[in-house]
What does this fold into?
Amino acid sequence: MKVLSGIQPTGRFHWGNYFGAIRQYIELQGNEQSFYFIADLHALTTIRDAGELRQNIADSALDLLALGLDPEQATLFRQSDVPEVTELTWLLMTITQMHLLEKCHAYKDKKSRGIAADAGLFTYPVLMAADILIYDSDLVPVGQDQVQHIEVTRDLAQRFNSLYGEDCLVLPEKHVLDASAKVPGTDGEKMSKSYGNTIPLFETPKRLKKIINKIKTDSTPVEDPKDPETCAVFTLYKLFASPQQQEELAARYRAGGMGYGEAKNALYEAAMEQFGAAFERRAELESRPDDVEDILQAGARQARQKAQAVVERVRSACGLTARPVMV
Ligand code: TYM
It folds into this structure.
């Protein structure tokens, strides 16, 4: 099976990124093809500071490797190191109907808030379709918010195939885990950098504790029973805990006599346990920037080889000439 996913370097990764996507990247590595990339071209639609983008890209690579992406089992690369993806974007753009993009949420949200959207944001889903289709991907692990884009990708592949030949592009499937499809943030809404409610993955223990203490809870008195299923702290705790640990904490919620502070403490402890080793690996990797760069460049070479073969197939299907040999 050919697995592929991408993540934007728009700031430090958070728990939503990890449970919604990165954990699945790691579980799915070692497949026939496990391609994961840092979506720097997509990030250009929001970050306009070159230094900030450069730093975010470097941080993203460190985070992914520290969290367990293994270059022996997975191919990690920067999206912009495979320029063929922008060529496929254009080829797909020529068959993309406007109404398909008009209903996509990133553009629609911005428009509804009266913010002028540029063509990059409007056509963002076409670049994402090219990202997926250029590697003949079968399976795309993502969180719920990306499902619409995978549906657009399937629509575009189908339309392209009906115009140019059924075997041209592979239709991908999404891989979304119900339990972590929409990880809540500190305000109980979807965790997202744009909502300012994130819990970053690599945070100092002191700051992490402070952020966890800010998670919104209701005002049920300590002695009263509480409903774990409507509490963001418990929803987050479930992501870390075994079924037995979940049951134990849920029973304490229901029994009463436990304040939310205790649940927050349990969440903090669980997070420290889960990410402690990644902290150490990250510090170690940070001291070897050349090795990280080598991993990214080797990844790009591998990804590019596949991308070139697929683009040649697509070019020929559309009637473009075979690419001249570069001198
Ligand atoms: P991005 O960078 O916003 O997010 C990366 C991944 O994290 C998931 N995610 C969440 N999952 C559950 N709960 C949350 N609160 C949460 N927040 C983020 C996202 O669903 C995503 O899987 N357009 C993509 C990047 C991209 C891509 C691709 C993905 C570009 N090309 C090709 C897959 C295939 C994006 O903006 O993800």
In short: The pocket of tryptophanyl-5'AMP is lined by residues 5-8, 16-17, 20-21, 39, 42, 128, 131-132, 140, 142-143, 145-146, 149, 180-183, 190-192 (CB under 6 Å). Residues 2-182+288-318 form a domain with the Rossmann fold fold (CATH 3.40.50.620). The mean pLDDT is 95.
